[in-house]
């Protein structure tokens, strides 16, 4: 009886291990199966050719979201509802942007696509591309155009506080509309300002 039980447990553990390995491979390498070489090359080219964000913008972004450019598909997989994908995981947002027409936008597809992107592209490159095509409404596309529209300056000339206004709008341009919803906009902006100051203070101490 004890021998039979050990045998069942051994088979169960083997089956569990094989299942886990299959899921791991499915998620990590599935993106290469559901896309062809030409699609991948075009995707990677689009991302890599996006203009680099100016240093002043990246400084504010990295202070506000210190872990964002370190996040990966596993973080998204296990904390899907816990963070803003567009801001805090650029590769995930890129996967959603390019993958929303595939497989009816299924969660599994986004994860597969994200791992494929992470194999070939950095989070910062993804961020460059995402913010190049972000729609702020009223015909304003991309953070550079938004900077010129709202502040009449190129993005590289903005102060930290004005950069935070741009980041506030990125998260939901329709909701955080300074003209139409000033109270909602200011509340969100103040939240980001406080977070920025707190993180900046902690960085100075470290």
How does this model look, in words?
With 206 residues, this protein is mainly alpha-helical. The chain folds into two domains: 1-52 and 69-123, no CATH class; 134-206, Biosynthetic peptidoglycan transglycosylase-like (Penicillin binding protein transpeptidase fold). The protein is built from eleven helices and two strands. It has helices at 2-34, 37-48, 55-64, 73-78, 85-88, 90-99, 107-120, 123-133, 143-151, 160-171, 182-205, and strands at residues 135-137, 140-141. A two-stranded antiparallel ribbon has the order 1-2. A hairpin with a 2-residue loop joins strand 1 (135-137) and strand 2. Helix 9 (143-151) packs across helix 10. The N and C termini lie far apart (60 Å). The chain crosses the membrane at residues 12-34. Residues 115-195 form the Glycosyl transferase family domain.
Number of strands: 2
- Helix count equals 11
Share of β-strand residues = under 5%
The overall number of domains is 2
Unreliable stretches: none
Rg (C-alpha, Å): 21 Å
Mean pLDDT: 85
Protein name: Glycosyl transferase family 51 domain-containing protein
Organism: Flavobacterium rivuli WB 3.3-2 = DSM 21788
Domain Glycosyl transferase family: 115-195
InterPro entries: Glyco_trans_51 (IPR001264), Lysozyme-like_dom_sf (IPR023346), PBP_transglycosylase (IPR036950)
Short descriptors:
Penicillin binding protein transpeptidase fold, PBP_transglycosylase, Lysozyme-like_dom_sf, membrane, 206 residues, mainly alpha
């Amino acid at each position: 009886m004890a021998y039979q039980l050990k045998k069942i447990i051994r088979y169960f553990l083997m089956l569990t291990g094989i299942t886990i390995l299959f899921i791991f491979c499915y998620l990590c390498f599935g993106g290469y199966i559901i896309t062809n070489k030409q699609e991948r090359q075009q995707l990677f080219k689009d991302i890599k050719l996006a203009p680099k964000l100016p240093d002043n913008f990246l400084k504010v972004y990295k202070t506000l979201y210190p872990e964002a450019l370190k996040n990966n598909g596993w973080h998204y997989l296990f904390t899907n509802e816990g963070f803003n994908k567009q801001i805090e995981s650029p590769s995930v947002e890129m996967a959603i942007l390019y993958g929303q027409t595939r497989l009816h936008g299924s969660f599994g597809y986004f994860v597969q696509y994200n791992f494929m992107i992470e194999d070939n592209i950095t989070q910062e490159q993804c961020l460059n591309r995402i913010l190049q095509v972000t729609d702020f409404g009223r015909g304003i596309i991309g953070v550079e155009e938004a900077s010129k529209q709202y502040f009449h300056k190129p993005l590289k000339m903005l102060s930290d506080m004005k950069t935070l206004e741009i980041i506030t709008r990125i998260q939901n341009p329709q909701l955080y509309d300074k003209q139409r919803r000033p109270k909602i906009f200011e509340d969100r902006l103040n939240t980001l300002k406080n977070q920025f100051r707190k993180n900046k203070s902690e960085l100075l101490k470290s």
